[in-house]
Amino acid sequence: TRVEIREGAVLLRGFALSVADELLPGIREVASVAEFRNMVTPGGHVMSVAMTNCGRLGWVTDSKGYRYTTEDPSTGKRWPEIPEAFEKLAREAADAAGFSGFAPDACLINRYAVGARMTLHQDRNEQDFGQPIVSVSLGLPATFQFGEVENRRGAQNVAVRHGDVVVWGGTARLAYHGVLALKAGVHEATGEYRFNLTFRRAG
Ligand code: MD3
Ligand code: FE
Fold first, then answer.
1. Any idea what DSSP says for residue 18?
2. Domain count, the chain
3. What is the ipTM score, two decimals?
4. According to its UniProt record, what is one Pfam family this protein matches (predicted)?
5. Which of 32, 114, 160, 163 could form a disulfide with 184 if both were Cys (CB 3.0 to 4.6 A apart)?
């Protein structure tokens, strides 16, 4: 089912379910080359979410700031390629949400263990805010928070489950958003974790 959770933001419930068993080995393969790591924010906090990337560009943070890089700072090697199954899913989801021709060059893979969370923020490190963001949830369920554009207040919650895809574009592209602390649990596909694939056109 397709739910418009706000103007520009479309929740495609279960859209990735039929390909989840291709996505999870893809995550394992990417992480075997570019390992999950807990990055440090410019403010000096270690992020509770562990991250890695695939694609031409990968999102990183360190004491110098947030940015996209072509190389993994931990190895100096280019980020692994986006697996074919990832790219196909991202393109089809964007298409289903009304954004045809989406061609991501960056896929951030977030791994949430129990207690991991992401505080409200905007995604502003990309070149063209006219391009949507496609988010794929795998494993343990979580609660997305999303607020207004340029305003953290009045955030709403939406529960996301294994296989759900959200496409954020148009007027929702610069909305504040975050993820509440992951609750303990065990998922048959991912064990004690939630994974989120975030596809972007960054360059
Ligand atoms: C709403 N990740 O990596 S994706 C991030 O579940 C990030 O790991 C979260 O936010 C996660 O930056 C949420 C959902 C999302 C992504 C982009 C958005 C929501 C958004 C852009 C605008 C508004
Ligand atoms: Fe974000």
1. G
2. 1
3. 0.93
4. 2OG-FeII_Oxy_2
5. 114
Q: Of the residues 135, 137, 151, 161, which should be mutated to test ligand 1's pocket, given the most ligand atoms within 8 Å of the CB?
A: 135
Tell me which residue range forms the domain holding 31: 2-200
Annotated binding-site residues for Fe cation read 121, 123, 177
Tell me, what amino acid is at 91? R
Residue 73's closest CA among 86, 59, 84? Answer: 59
| DSSP class per residue in 145-186 | EEEEETEEEEEEEEEE-TT-EEEE-GGGTTEEEEEPPPPP--
Q: What is the CATH number of the domain that holds 186?
A: 2.60.120.590
> What tens digit of pLDDT does each residue of 41-95 get?
999 999 999 999 999 999 999 999 999 999 999 999 999 999 999 999 999 999 9
pTM for this prediction: 0.97
The order of strands in the sheet holding 118-121 is 118-121, 175-179, 142-149, 151-160
One-letter amino acid for residue 16 of the chain: A
- Residues framing ligand 1 (Cβ under 6 A): 108, 110, 118, 123, 133, 135, 144, 146, 166, 168, 172-173, 175, 177, 179, 196, 198
